[in-house]
Structure prediction request, 397 residues.
Amino acid sequence: MAPALTESYPSAPYHFQKPVSKAIFPDGIKTSGQHPPLYDQLRPYEDFPEVINGPTVWKSEDYINTPEKWVHSFTQEEISEMSEAADAFLSSGTPLTGISKANFKLPLMSTLMESVRSDLLNGKGFILFKRFPVDDWGNHKSAVAYMGLGTYLGYFVSQNGRGHVLGHVKDVGDDPKRIDKVRIYRTNARQFFHQDDCDIVGLLCIARALKGGESDIVSSHHVYNVLSKERPDVLKTLTEPIWYFDRKEEISEGEDPYIKTAIFFLEKGGNGRVYSKWDPYYVRSLTRFSDQGIIPPLSAAQLEASDVLEATCKRLALHMILEVGDIQFLSNEHVFHARTEYTDHAPPAPRRHLMRLWLATPEDEGGWKLPFHDSAEKKRGGIQVDDRPPVAPLDAE
Prediction:
């Protein structure tokens, strides 16, 4: 490793979580939260591969005309099994934040979900489920079945400072121009290509917009290969730990309001895979600090790298439209995703609404070996503020 990457950034010690109160965290596991990387485990650009190969590298033309490769319509048998499991869970009186594989049994679907999980982590990194009966079940039972299904892919983590483990992508009237405070998923603005603070993200469509709100995804490894060939200077900038990410005031006591990190990383150990973590809204919202000289402003090279990355993702993306009852699961390790701007129906028609899950996949359960303190934690990543308990609201708050 180049000395420049280790001398300026000492690693902070990390202690594995102690047992937590089930009165606060019903499944007995607390979200780890956001952390800077382990700087002494970051690798210089020269150590990165020139080309990435394997099933995580795909092109939109590989799938645009072959939905059978990435779309699974739930069978009546699968719907019945989820329905019975949801009814049993509701009858138990267990809080939704306490749902797990142990209390949401899917003996028939478990094999399918194991295959889906493997493909999300180590394959193409995406799937679209259809025919989830949200209109028949309503929001409460749908949320139970959706979260129960998610437990077969990973551990749900908190998605914001309020502890939401069941998130709601919905325009609640927040101002998208206030990117220093506002999370874009709570607006109707375009979401540029990005990745979330978790290993797998799920989106269940409850209601569609009048216009827009459509999904684009792209293999970050295909993007990497294109940048390596066309703009290696940009790729090098993206591998350097010179990027500050805003935490938008969702911080625990004593924590910094931003994190200094890179965009592309290598897994820990030899011959590690290329991992990425990116959201342009979080790097462009820090002027309240850079204007005061607390952190440096984005350089010309960083601004160009951000623009080139977005343009490359857009050029290579696979487009899809989520209908009511569709569930999209994506890898945040090696897939970028985006959303088009949208316009809602006029009242009293429902607004566009997607239920969201953030799921963690720890190292000892097949997860990637990430250069972060909490890589071995069950609920690594996510956003955790102090000991705020998890909540699973049935609609946006």
The two ends are 46 Å apart (CA to CA).
